[in-house]
Design a protein that fits this description.
211 residues, alpha+beta, ADP-ribosylation fold, 2 domains, 4-stranded antiparallel β-sheet, 6 helices, 7 strands
Amino acid sequence: MPPSLAEFQSRLTSDGKIVDNSLYLFHGTNCYRRMEINKLGEFMAGKGDLTFFCTSLFQAFAHAKIACLRDSKSQNDHLKPNSLITEPVILKVKFSPQLWNQVEFVNVLFESPDEIRADIGVIGNISSAYIESVLFCKHGRKLQEIAEIDHVSNFYAINKLRKLIQQRSTEEMILKSLYSLSQNISQKFNPNQLPKLKIVDHFQCLKRKNA
């Protein structure tokens, strides 16, 4: 039997999971599933008619990445890999006493005086009205509650990688311009030296031969 809501709340003392005596848990999924939840007006339960929630935001993000991998490998035509399926998102859900009555089990993974990590299985239909906010979603809305996800290293790693790619793209463009300039200067001062052929030049030669 799962503990009562009051008993479980008394064991959560940090990470902002309890605000104004309300319990907040996290559900990891992908952006496609999030849109389906909004469309249907309720969560899509999995095996055993269960929907899983986590006390840890980092743990929910790991579940979200698993959901992305699972759906990207699906054979269904409507689940072909795209920007929705491959984007992990986290739903912050407010648990009312009525919703807690649907809790089937609480699996405690780690517990200390300052923190508890647990998976919570909820059976039956869950209205999307319980969703308090959506984290990490880039489709049409900004990131919310940044302070709550400061300790998630993946969030910073993704932003760092994006900036690095942009920087490398700029550097690559500058290097290509410098290389082209050096080729022009070399050809000007050494007119007898043949310039190096590029891939584009080879394609143009093949095009002329086939014409």
